[in-house]
């Protein structure tokens, strides 16, 4: 699916946020100079194409009890990475899961982000992931300070 | 802020299951057994308290044609604020965290092309004078699903 100019405008509106009114799509449609029905049809299409994962709320996770987050970096042999990735991605505690190239000064090639109510809980998750994946070479990098956390503003730069 | 049982239920629903229809807040209310007006009032309050950071579209960067990477930079402790200001100034930098490692500042870059990502990184090195940066573009994506089961906590 190629995004039209209208689609891009829809993305810009939806990323800014949905108004808290009875008919939020009608409010946005008026801004975009289209009908509410047209907008809803278009939003469904954008979602069906996988361009939009969902409309949803992003939470400040520390405010709902998840006080600790750790990036766990793993060293996994190439031949195991696909299988391990699929296993780890299934677990609800894992919010992000990526393979990245290793560097000479940084031997880790696989990344999972986990959130817990404490460092101890993150540690326990790491141990469990390690057992599931059969990989023991890993380390946890806890976040100490959040310097920036925002949602991406597409088509604004 | 104290979240009651209804807030928690509401947070779980609006994270994962927001209906795309003419009256979404009424539909959410029906699902959890409160009125549309109460849904709106509670969401307003949760936003004011900054429990909800944003309620809107969650997009797949790659499908929008964006390129991204994860970087880590070694910043002397006395320069953290100043370097963070340089980095955070870019729209395409959405996450920046201090982590407990000698590569202490970790940030993501998103931009409309790989060249633009490279350019941002080059500018950061030039503006901060710090060249010790590791650049870790993703090679394979397995998952991004940031939902927090609030009701279980």
TrEMBL record, chain A:
Domain Siroheme decarboxylase AsnC-like ligand binding, chain residue ranges per copy: 63-148
Gene3D superfamilies, per database record: 3.30.70.3460
Family membership: Belongs to the Ahb/Nir family.
EC number(s) on file: 4.1.1.111
Catalytic activity annotation: siroheme + 2 H(+) = 12,18-didecarboxysiroheme + 2 CO2
Keywords: Lyase
Source taxon at top rank: Bacteria
Keyword Lyase: yes
Classification via SMART domains: HTH_ASNC
Domain Siroheme decarboxylase NirL-like HTH: 7-53
One Pfam family in the UniProt entry: NirdL-like_HTH
MF (Gene Ontology): lyase activity
Protein name: siroheme decarboxylase
Pathway entry: Porphyrin-containing compound metabolism
UniProtKB/TrEMBL annotation, chain B:
Keywords on record: Lyase
EC code: 4.1.1.111
Keyword Repeat set for record: no
Residues in Siroheme decarboxylase NirL-like HTH domain copies: 7-53
Residues annotated as domain Siroheme decarboxylase AsnC-like ligand binding: 63-143
Record GO terms (molecular function): lyase activity
Catalysed transformations (reactions): siroheme + 2 H(+) = 12,18-didecarboxysiroheme + 2 CO2
Protein family (similarity comment): Belongs to the Ahb/Nir family.
Name of the protein in question: siroheme decarboxylase
